[in-house]
Amino acid sequence: MSVLSPPRTLADDLERRRLAHRAARLELVVRRLRDRATWRHPGGEVPAGLREAVRDFQDQLADVERRRRELDR
């Protein structure tokens, strides 16, 4: 016996698109912040504020990716 998933709604599709767009933006921000840390502080200590910003955006990206996986179930 196979279990059918409920049909996807327009709201589900819109949320998927919104999350995909947000994930792309967050990935870009994380990449730019890492580049900045490398460029501004090669081999040196990266300021705590910059490290925290990268970590915060990475956490947000993880939350978005988790929500995307939940929607795909």
Quantity of strands, as a count: 0
* C-alpha-based Rg, rounded: 17 Å
**Low-pLDDT residue intervals, each spanning 5 or more residues:** none
**Dominant shape:** elongated
Q: Count up the helices.
A: 2
How much helical structure, as a percent, in the residues? over 70%
Distance between the termini: 18 Å
Query: What is the succession of H and E elements?
Result: HH
Q: Mean of residue pLDDT? A: 88
Largest sheet: none
Q: What share of the residues does DSSP label as strand, in percent?
A: under 5%
Structural class: mainly alpha
Describe the model.
The protein is mainly α and about 70 residues long. It has a domain at about 25-70. The chain contains two helices and no strands. It has helices at about 10-40, 50-70. α1 packs antiparallel against α2. The longest helix is centred in the middle third of the chain and has 31 residues, at about 10-40. The chain is elongated. The model has no long low-confidence stretch (mean pLDDT about 90).
Which secondary structure elements does this structure contain, and how are they paired or packed?
Blueprint: H1 10-40, H2 48-71
